[in-house]
Model the fold of this input.
Amino acid sequence: MPRPADPCGTIAAVRSMALAYSLYRQGATLVKIGILAVQGDFDAHARMLASMGVESVEVRTPADLADCDALILPGGESTTQLQFLKEEGLEDAIRKFAAEDKAIFGTCAGAILLATEVKNPHQDSLKLLDMTVLRNGYGRQVHSDVVSGPSTLRKEPLEMVFIRGPVIERVGPNVEVLAEYAGKPALVQKGHILASAFHPELTSDTTVHRHFLDLVALGTPRKTVDVSR
Ligand code: GLN
Done:
């Protein structure tokens, strides 16, 4: 039977509440996805996850992070975000979080924060993913644009929203390239760390977030990632 259309997400929300309740009755624990909520488009990630029936919490302090099973670093202005991370003690907390093999996904400015080397201009970073990024590296044409490119995550090209995104200039030997744009890596992963130069949270395609939730599930075998896909 064809699935009914669900433009407002009502069916997905009801289904996810019913599933959450039945898991709660069974004593299962749901994973907690934290989103760094300092500056930038953190709310768009929360809406994307909510549309998939997954709840998230805003992270502003190491104590907020301590409760989380996974973390999203959203787009925005990486210089401002980095300064906040340093001031709030979140820089060390996130490094420790990564060392515990908890999944982290950085989009655009978030990807810049994860890179081992940041150029244009040089900037400090968390150094959790072996790659070199060039801030605002696409120049005027792709300054802010919706494009598409090949991806290993689906057969059809992946829609990518670029907003003053970084060019991923170099990736380390064990970094997987999951999507490309204009011959350059646009979505990359090493183990439990995922980074995109574009903004998957600004499209209606859940492919990249689903992939991230699969990573989260791998690292939290005793918890439930409740996705009403
Ligand atoms: N250009 C921004 C930076 O360098 C990133 C832009 C974005 O996250 N959309 O931090």
Observations:
- The helical segments are 10-25, 42-51, 62-66, 78-87, 90-99, 109-114, 207-219.
- The longest strand covers residues 184-190.
